[in-house]
Amino acid sequence: MSLIVQKYGGSSVADAESIKRVAKRIVQTRKAGNEVVVVVSAMGDTTDELLDLAGQVTPLPEPRELDMLLTAGERISMALLAMTIKGMGVDARSFTGSQAGMITDARHGAARIVDVTPVRLREALDAGAIAIVAGFQGFSRETMDITTLGRGGSDTTAVALAAALGAEVCEIYTDVDGVFTADPRVVTKATKIERITSEEMLELAAAGSKVLYIRAVEYARRHGVTIHVRSSFSNSPGTYVYNPKDGETVEEPIIAGVAADLNEAKITIVDVPDIPGKAAEIFTLVATTGANIDMIVQNVSAAATGRTDISFTLPKAEGLRVMQALETQKDRIGFSTLQFDDQIGKLALVGAGMRTNAGVSAKLFTALYEAGINIEMISTSEIRISVVTRADTINDAVRVVHTAFGLDGEQDAVVYAGTGR
Amino acid sequence: MSLIVQKYGGSSVADAESIKRVAKRIVQTRKAGNEVVVVVSAMGDTTDELLDLAGQVTPLPEPRELDMLLTAGERISMALLAMTIKGMGVDARSFTGSQAGMITDARHGAARIVDVTPVRLREALDAGAIAIVAGFQGFSRETMDITTLGRGGSDTTAVALAAALGAEVCEIYTDVDGVFTADPRVVTKATKIERITSEEMLELAAAGSKVLYIRAVEYARRHGVTIHVRSSFSNSPGTYVYNPKDGETVEEPIIAGVAADLNEAKITIVDVPDIPGKAAEIFTLVATTGANIDMIVQNVSAAATGRTDISFTLPKAEGLRVMQALETQKDRIGFSTLQFDDQIGKLALVGAGMRTNAGVSAKLFTALYEAGINIEMISTSEIRISVVTRADTINDAVRVVHTAFGLDGEQDAVVYAGTGR
């Protein structure tokens, strides 16, 4: 008998009808002879509604109380799901994060998992029941308080339970068919990826693919969990995110996919003294703001002036904070002006095959050049090349790159209403 | 420093504005130098909305899962209240029933309290914080599961914590000014009762007064807790429900108040053989339906026939079930017909002073007779007289009795919109 962990997001359990539909799928999995653990998010917009209520009573909610508040969301969905399955004549029991043994540190709102002890889930499974677990939430042994893992935490709960219980696969149900070679809303010929390594998936997620949360993929990679991303609206297989064994030859396509991100902005620090330690000084300062810096580019120094420009990208929402921090240290750093540009787009080409295939960058740059798209920044990792272009050219850029690397499918991809999440 | 337990019902925390208003009152109590424990119900109609959702997914929700579902309601209100108080700069911490040490048996939906161990509340109080506790919910040590105490459970939670923590008083906040000598919507001259014994309060609650739940009053009586029922919309004192010490002379008015109940129906079993054991047979059968029988009257047997009629009252909602049960056993019991009458009203006159004051019944019957109101059934306890009349005469009956016993006040009582709960 294999053990399968299934995770259903908020849109899959948005109302009574959706919950009944999901319950049927879970019961089918159980009746096919599997042990089933289900991780569930809060219904539809519940979390946002609770956050809104919190905002109405106080401008800066106490993190401990905010966690207490938000965990009510999964409590509702898991209880409804369990009673629906029970009503279908199949044994099911719901468990809070705490009851499921999701032990975390005490960092409210962004708790890290420190231990997973699913004793009660194992007991329920041994008794023949389906275990329904609240995603997103945990329990701190240190403070005896309820915690949450932060947005996307339900994916992480599912992967962590799959690891702790030795599940065969962790199925993440969403409202798209799987991971695509590019966003099907932009590239109509985008094709569903059947198999992708967790390393590639990490790069795609970091580059803007929203199907899986980076944190869950990282956890899966570290603990050897296979993820199956699939649609809760169909029975067709989705995308397997797997971990190749050491030395295993990955006979996969060179390129896994193309991702685009329009949520970043670029800050340029103009006329910085080109002396050792300057970059360290700047980014130590930026780090104090807690901003997530992505790409960094330093122009070649103009020999005559001994000064240089430094550009970096970061999420738009963090722009103002970082600009202010830099401005206060203008004299100490010694730059002349700051430029803020939120009209950029970032394209990332990801593929484990890049490691051993020369010419990938050349092909990428050529495709963009032939389409008349200007490249403003470049950064690379072992299995990823990212470029920054003007925001209004990013969709064209994704399409030409998708075609250039032979990723276009025969047919147009099916795009559901309200796709993405 | 005295410890005060305050309980706020759903209408007192129905939205963000109400929560802020309640938070101010709690902070005032704390700043007046008291230790404060607050018990809170779910916001407004949350519980009914959750029950409705459950009904949408399955006709007969599993009790364990229903408890898991419903307890989300108080989790939301207590977290919002705690963060509101925190936002006002006063330390506050919320606790679930389980965290507050409300240990119950495992009877889901109607759990009984078996132990109260408010260790974490005591710690929070010692640290100078206000403790906010979810009402209505508990935890079974036996099954390690979450339980609920049933409707009105929040009052019981408050009284139980007041007992366990040795509180000076348990304040139950509601949307009326206190307990009245009669329903102010019926008797305009009804007056607020300043002090009433828990014994009298029990009889009033059993007779239809909806201000306090019987169970909470019973708990308070058994554990010597003083309850102060008051309005969350004003600062004036409400009604103290107290426990006279042994031998204490109760120098209170003879009559505490008049209550009326229109939710009962009467079943009459016609032509029952008047032989020993027949009543036992009938009410053993009725007991198997779980119905709550109130008054029972057996007519004098007609000597010629050797047969009698037996009437009893019960909540209307339970009528059909009991009628069906009796009908199936018609031949065995040997009656001729069943009559169902849901047009009755029950009036109860309550007062500890009755014990030592003769003539109370005579005065009651005379007042009703003079008003032309017919009495259909009579039942008495040591401190209560109940009579059944036609439903459409019950309000007149309450008014004439209220006047006859000198309970009318000088001024009309203030009736709030949406009074009662």
From TrEMBL, chains A, B:
GO terms for molecular function: aspartate kinase activity. The keyword Kinase applies. It holds the Pfam family ACT_9. Keywords: Amino-acid biosynthesis, ATP-binding, Kinase, Lysine biosynthesis, Nucleotide-binding, Transferase. It catalyses: L-aspartate + ATP = 4-phospho-L-aspartate + ADP. It comes from the Bacteria. The keyword NAD does not apply. Its EC number is 2.7.2.4. Pathway: Amino-acid biosynthesis; L-lysine biosynthesis via DAP pathway; (S)-tetrahydrodipicolinate from L-aspartate: step 1/4; Amino-acid biosynthesis; L-methionine biosynthesis via de novo pathway; L-homoserine from L-aspartate: step 1/3; Amino-acid biosynthesis; L-threonine biosynthesis; L-threonine from L-aspartate: step 1/5. Residues 267-343, 349-421 form the ACT domain. InterPro entries: AceGlu_kinase-like_sf, ACT-like_dom_sf, ACT_Aspartokinase, ACT_dom, AKii-LysC-BS, Asp/Glu/Uridylate_kinase, Asp_kin_monofn, Asp_kinase. Belongs to the aspartokinase family. NCBIfam families: asp_kinases (TIGR00657), PRK06635.1-1 (NF005153), PRK06635.1-2 (NF005154), PRK06635.1-4 (NF005155). This is Aspartokinase.
